Amino acid sequence: MAELRRRLADFAAARDWGRYHTPKNLVAALSVEASELLEIFQWLTPEQSARVMEDAGTAHRVEDEVADVLAYLLQFCEVLGIDPLAALAAKIERNETRFPVPDPTASPHRHSSE
């Protein structure tokens, strides 16, 4: 991960793109790329979406859009000084507390707020 972050930073620096890589611009670009990924799946049934990687052309498009999303996310993290893996680990920990494993002996129709 660190190597990829460095390569992205070097790539942008060599092209003098730093002035464009503001948090606002990067998060906007991230949103656009995520939307391009969504567009591939937009009208597929759940079954078709599960098989999307079976078609080489579509698989290539999915991989490219995933790469674009990840690249912009990593660049966004770089600009703001966020360690994305540490942020993810902290979020998982909060979610484990927030959403505990259900008690298998509890009624399946009972909500935790009851």
Describe what this molecule looks like in 3D:
The protein is mainly α. The chain is built from 5 helices and no strands. It has helices at 2-14, 23-41, 46-50, 56-80, 84-98. α1 crosses α4 and α2 packs antiparallel against α4 (56-80). The longest helix has 25 residues, at 56-80.
Task: Quickly list its features.
mainly alpha; 5 helices
What's the short story on this structure?
This protein is mainly α and 114 residues long.
Q: Spell out the helices and strands N to C.
A: HHHHH
Q: Which structural class is indicated by helix and strand composition?
A: mainly alpha
Alpha-carbon distance between the two ends: 43 Å
Give the total of beta strands: 0
User: What is the count of helical runs?
Assistant: 5
The major β-sheet equals: none
Helix content bin: 55-70%
Which consecutive residue ranges, at least 5 long each, have pLDDT under 50? none
Radius of gyration: 19 Å
Beta-strand content estimate:
under 5%
Q: What spatial form do the alpha-carbon principal axes imply?
A: flat
- Mean pLDDT level: 93
Task: Outline the secondary-structure elements.
Blueprint: H1 2-14, H2 23-41, H3 46-50, H4 56-80, H5 84-98
Helix pairs in contact: 1-4, 2-4
